[in-house]
Amino acid sequence: MSVRQVQNWTSEPRLTYLSRAQERRVKIRELRATGMSMRAVAAEIGCSVGTVHNALKDTDQPPPSEQSGHVQERVHGRPRTCP
Question: Which residues form a coiled coil (predicted)?
Answer without folding.
Answer: none
